[in-house]
């Protein structure tokens, strides 16, 4: 978990009772890290907390950005070979990666909002408001289930399995992910709605052929 440095922001890592008591008494935390770690989760229950001065937030418009992530190395084992996460091809450490995230946040939000508007517009033209809502949800599920890794220096996108056996990129997740994944980089001709229409036509044809 991380946050942008801003006026009125404080943090503390320590025993749950100590951290909560500090905030209740002072209204802020002491920016300290408990050195007695790692330890069992039930051993003095370690917690990580942020505190924000609401006066700074409202009056000074100091609005920190909070992020939650999970760093795993390797990211996945493919054919018995450990593959590193793709971010390691661009950043020397996870701290550098997180720093870039926070620096790029405003720009990323603008790009994401523009992307959402394009998908909403195209999906509504194809199937109306209900279809637009389904596409918005499916898009987030598809990207949330994608693991970006590096294999021999090349970027790979692996799709997480929906079962618990540890497989990746099986056909039952590749097929439903086919419409969302190429959407951010559309071909020179056609729109998102063309691909949605094509996908729906293909599904209809398959239902007819199975019947």
Give your account of this protein's structure.
The protein has 211 residues and is of the alpha+beta class. It has two domains: 1-68, no CATH class; 106-210, no CATH class. It has helices at 16-26, 54-59, 94-103, 105-144, 171-177, 192-210, and strands spanning 2-3, 9-15, 32-33, 46-52, 66-67, 76-78, 81-83, 146-151, 154-159. A three-stranded mixed beta sheet has the order 3-2-4. A two-stranded antiparallel sheet has the order 1-5. Strands 6-7 form a two-stranded antiparallel sheet. Helix 4 packs parallel to helix 6. The longest helix has 40 residues, at 105-144. It is globular, with a radius of gyration of 23 Å. The model is unreliable at 186-211 (pLDDT under 50).
* Share of residues in helices: 40-55%
Beta-strand content: 15-25%
Q: Give the biggest beta sheet.
A: 3 strands, mixed
Task: Please compute the radius of gyration using only Cα atoms.
Answer: 23 Å
Number of strands: 9
| Multimeric status of the protein | single chain
Number of domains: 2
Q: Mean pLDDT, nearest integer?
A: 82
Strand order in the sheet with the most strands: 3-2-4
List segments where confidence is low: pLDDT < 50 over at least 5 consecutive residues. Answer: 186-211
- General form: globular
Helix and strand sequence: EEHEEHEEEHHEEHH
Number of helices: 6
Could you tell me how far the N terminus lies from the C terminus, measured between alpha carbons in angstroms? 51 Å
- The helix/strand class is alpha+beta
